[in-house]
Write a structure and sequence with these properties.
single chain, alpha+beta, elongated, six-stranded antiparallel β-sheet
């Protein structure tokens, strides 16, 4: 009978861990625009729309410090000739602006993002984008999950 001896045997064990997490930070953007034949009139109306948007958001419980307005984008629209080409005559100006809300109140901002079409009743053509959701405590979570996975690996090895 032959005896086989094993030297330097290694068993590798991996562990796993799972945990459901909930976003604790939200970024939501929306935009609105104005079209006017006069640039000063367009700017005035756009500014009025911005004030309506801010007032609306604050009335829904958003802190004014969480609202950031972007720069204004101006587009000149020229009249077309009979061939469909632009002429040098200005037909109107289109001014647009966006607002961004960054908040830890995820549920509240999510709800507002779904209801913001109410601004149409105030003659603001507001276009909402889908909110972006974040989790800000990943570093702490990584440590916790590594400890859980290590414990799981130890149990599997035993």
């Amino acid at each position: 009978m032959q005896v086989i001896k094993f030297k330097d045997q290694v068993i590798s064990v991996t562990g796993s861990a799972q945990k459901d997490i909930r976003s604790d930070y939200i970024v939501w953007r929306g935009a609105f625009s104005i079209r006017e034949v006069s640039l000063p009139a367009a700017y005035k109306r756009l500014n009025e729309s911005l004030e309506k948007v801010k007032k609306y958001l604050v009335s829904k419980g958003i802190n004014e410090k969480e609202i950031v307005a972007s720069q204004i984008t101006t587009e000149t629209i020229y009249k077309k000739n009979e061939k469909g080409n632009d002429t040098n005559d200005i037909q109107w100006y289109r001014l647009s602006q966006s607002v961004e809300v960054r908040s830890k109140e995820v549920d509240k901002v999510t709800q507002i993002s779904r209801e913001c079409t109410e601004l149409i009743n105030q003659e603001v053509q507001f276009e909402s984008q889908a909110p972006e959701y974040f989790y800000t405590k990943l570093d702490e979570l990584k440590i916790e999950m590594l400890a859980r996975a290590t414990e799981n690996a130890k149990q599997r090895a035993e």
